[in-house]
Amino acid sequence: MIKVGVVGGTGYTGVELLRLLSHHPEVSLEAITSRTEAGMPVAEMFPSLRGHVDLRFATPDEARLERCDLVFFATPNGVAMKEARRLLDAGVRLIDLAADFRLADVDQWERWYGMTHAAPELLEEAVYGLPEVEREAIARARLVANPGCYPTAVQLGFLPLLEANAVARDGLVADCKSGVSGAGRKAEVHTLFAEAADNFKAYGVAGHRHLPEIRQGLQRIARGLPVELTFVPHLTPMIRGIHATLYARLTDPSLDVQALFAERYAGEPFVDVLPAGSHPETRSVRASNLCRIAVHRPQGGDVVVVLSVIDNLVKGAAGQAVQNMNLMFGFPETLGLDLVPVSP
Amino acid sequence: MIKVGVVGGTGYTGVELLRLLSHHPEVSLEAITSRTEAGMPVAEMFPSLRGHVDLRFATPDEARLERCDLVFFATPNGVAMKEARRLLDAGVRLIDLAADFRLADVDQWERWYGMTHAAPELLEEAVYGLPEVEREAIARARLVANPGCYPTAVQLGFLPLLEANAVARDGLVADCKSGVSGAGRKAEVHTLFAEAADNFKAYGVAGHRHLPEIRQGLQRIARGLPVELTFVPHLTPMIRGIHATLYARLTDPSLDVQALFAERYAGEPFVDVLPAGSHPETRSVRASNLCRIAVHRPQGGDVVVVLSVIDNLVKGAAGQAVQNMNLMFGFPETLGLDLVPVSP
Amino acid sequence: MIKVGVVGGTGYTGVELLRLLSHHPEVSLEAITSRTEAGMPVAEMFPSLRGHVDLRFATPDEARLERCDLVFFATPNGVAMKEARRLLDAGVRLIDLAADFRLADVDQWERWYGMTHAAPELLEEAVYGLPEVEREAIARARLVANPGCYPTAVQLGFLPLLEANAVARDGLVADCKSGVSGAGRKAEVHTLFAEAADNFKAYGVAGHRHLPEIRQGLQRIARGLPVELTFVPHLTPMIRGIHATLYARLTDPSLDVQALFAERYAGEPFVDVLPAGSHPETRSVRASNLCRIAVHRPQGGDVVVVLSVIDNLVKGAAGQAVQNMNLMFGFPETLGLDLVPVSP
Amino acid sequence: MIKVGVVGGTGYTGVELLRLLSHHPEVSLEAITSRTEAGMPVAEMFPSLRGHVDLRFATPDEARLERCDLVFFATPNGVAMKEARRLLDAGVRLIDLAADFRLADVDQWERWYGMTHAAPELLEEAVYGLPEVEREAIARARLVANPGCYPTAVQLGFLPLLEANAVARDGLVADCKSGVSGAGRKAEVHTLFAEAADNFKAYGVAGHRHLPEIRQGLQRIARGLPVELTFVPHLTPMIRGIHATLYARLTDPSLDVQALFAERYAGEPFVDVLPAGSHPETRSVRASNLCRIAVHRPQGGDVVVVLSVIDNLVKGAAGQAVQNMNLMFGFPETLGLDLVPVSP
Fold this sequence. Notes:
Chains A, B, C, D: Pathway: Amino-acid biosynthesis; L-arginine biosynthesis; N(2)-acetyl-L-ornithine from L-glutamate: step 3/4. Four copies of one chain form a homotetramer. Chain A is α/β, with parallel strands linked by helices.
């Protein structure tokens, strides 16, 4: 059993992490920090955890995270980068569920996130926690940057095509739809029920922070070749789920794209390639760590349409973080993650 | 490990039962029957089960249910009563998730359900599967009538008050609200998304089939004394969940109702009495087998208001059925049911 | 045409009022104030109003409300009471959509609203704006207290029974369900989409501010006789709508309650008594000023169940305010309010 | 006043048409037909229409549609084509809200709709009812084919770009999201609340019937030049609304696309071009006949992203049909359609 701490457990990513960790057979949950809620029982803020999590929120001082084997940061952007050095020096391994260590280029990071990076020297060491791409590096990592939700769905959808150099790398389109929990648990007008229900809209078309992360990931997958992507995120009136609809043009129209995807993901425990002709629904992965993918060539043309769905709070956040933890500590990759999706 | 069969696994109760049974450590799922879908892989109809349930729907003949230790009927009303005798004679134990064996009075059953009962001789033997009331009888039962969803929430809410003879037994009110999955997976206009979303209505005010079941249960709890209840069910635009708001008048205004509830349910693994002043939310039990209850006395008067929430598909159906199975076969009562609610 | 001003048009009540006033043939909309948004075009905050409302939010100074014939206050509680005297003295008539003038008893008001009343001398003059009860007084009023949403649905539902002295006045129950827009447009965690969707809960069971308003109204209807009411509000995952389920015990079981309701509301333009056996849906009044009511006597007993639905933003707020305006200025009562409900 | 009949008023398009026609100052609603519901008051099936529509459903024989000036067909595909000839010969003008007369090519129609066309000789005469393109022809038409919902949103979004020959005509992408009412009021499992709520999926990726209609429309707009389009429709958990996200590549990167759209739609009463940088929400057009459009060039590149929203039941069906009626009979184009969107 490893000792685990969670920094910032008051958001949706945090509560989902606690749901998963509370039943993980190799995890002893030692501390959950929250400056604002210190002293409050976690299950008072999140009644769904009554009987499953007995901890109280602690101040960072009380939490003594340095005695943990692993600390998750489920904090806003800009927090983990300030604490990482100290904890790493104490021998603690880290998984940041925010964006602090996702971009290799510090200038780009500072431009998109609008702050000075507090630990640029760690960017090179940090491993991007997408197991389907970086499994071996994650296993050895001290510091893992857990991917964003959109980037997970989009990268897994384009991956076989770009690895096989099978599509034109300019003109990629990622039209993505997210449930409202992706916007977090912060009180804001635009995510109120009466604003977001029975409504659909795009947002951030001019530029969303996940764009550079996706582009960086796709270019790595394409072995450094440039990739040109248009990424449009949308808000859809559901709680959980991301549906990425991806468009690319095949360079070799004779390619069997179904076989390409099936082979690439044959051994992956959390990527499920659906039979040809399928339309994955977000609820088919609800509350699970799965990414389900279907591939289409409408009217048999050379445009390939990939449909990729995840639960933004699980494979898009907390579940992928637990998957990374399993890899880092040599546990079976699926340990604690054998969740049957909840449907309906 | 016991051999388990499921008759009629194409509804919401069925798919939820499969979700739970597929991970139950003492269950070997042998067969799932569906006349209409025979031959189809279960996971093709319910993609959420891909990778978790490998069976195909079988015809009743193929299924050879008589070799099972236990068969669940997740069928419409009127099916189990026709098959029960044959299976019981073959030594199979049965749990019916429909209403065939819920009412002890055959005349009343036939009046409310509008058909002739095919096995009235089994009504006396059948045990009403509400573990908090009938735990010992369930353990010995060959045939368990799994309670309805509303009756579960209402009986657990009134139980401590009636057992303690603490309220006037006339004038009880149960104002209940159900998610739409409670109406089943049958194609009907009134449960279409565009009909039921962003909408709220009562239904069945003149008389709902769960009324006699609730009344029978409450009268048993009240040791046979008559109980007069007004029961109004409502449809609320959510998928899962029942919220029962119960009203009664205390006969002894000095009673500590919070203590009464806390003590009565102290040892119950699936009933959670919330601290005084709480308002349980249906999502706090989503996808779990819990019933959470709060008790209020508005303005300190002698009206007691009980708020009782369950997930209609779990504690209100499939989960309670698994709980009953655990009791019947001597497994730990919570085996396979230690589910953390999914929230948000 | 009358000159109309709106104070505080940035909430849901405000935008709904603008939707209605923008097409009212006798209204010239002169000014909308908002301290925080002064200078912003109204249609920029509410794109639904693009092309219909050309005004900008103005500061109270710029707005020069004293030149208006009528000013609506669509402000939080505690604002109108500070401005009322000055405007009344300038000859302006007022409709307050908040609670400042709803309770006749200043002590009670201060206890429930937690502030000192700034204009207690106006409480006696203020007319409670429920036209079905106070039509003549409203027509003469300078200052109208527009009723709350729950109080409107509940009073209209109990009214015929109490006027006819047909039910026991102790033991009334009002189990009410509201859409989330009833909580306003303020950024708060508990009304976020990811908190309120697919969820149902009671709130304020210990005591909701609408309770004294309802009680006062019911007692007036009962000609001053005491009324004892249990009121439990619930939050339901829809945008608009209130469904009140009301319970009372008939004193004369031979009463024809259907006829009682039909006769009482025969001439009312905005109260629609449905045929016996009906279950009104909230969507059947969506975006309209109607209250639809059905009356039941389950199993023919002496408990009467009244189902009363309104759109909380229309008959429960802005629409009723316009109805009051029509009465105050001698316009046809339905002018500008002949709205066909939007369904589905 | 003109005499108007409606064939098939039991679906969502029908009830929306009745909502609009019931208040149209130049329309006398003579008859609504439904074989299955003949004799039932319309307002019994659609309680939202109580007090607004007093007609009963009539059999086609009773309805005597030949005495009408105009008949709307709000029927499934394949009905209007059988009745059109007879009514046209009787001097009645027709608007078909289904697809019977939308495609000029009878072979293509029969392939996509899987039936033999009963009136191919009328295809040439039929005018495609998109006023922004065919206003003059509509005014003279006897037979108008009202456009589909997706085709309306997509054509209005691409129109200025294709008219101006400003984008590459191969590689267009239309990623569209529809509310569930777009699937109609037929009882089907996949549109049940418990299936469609809190869920998102694509459908018909292999080929949706609106694809040939869109392609035909875009090619006409492009003056007959070929257009290559990938069209992916999605189901989103809301009642009303379509959001089309359109992607194209500019041929002249120096083009001011905002000005192009603003100028093209300057005089259009129902197309609203939003300020640069906007993200139209579907609710901003809810229950209105508006199409709101925003144009983006992410990161200033040569990909243009158009966001186009309509209410599928209004501008995507019944409202556009009324707009066409206004044109056909010389009424002001906006008569009866000056609807303020209902938001929230």
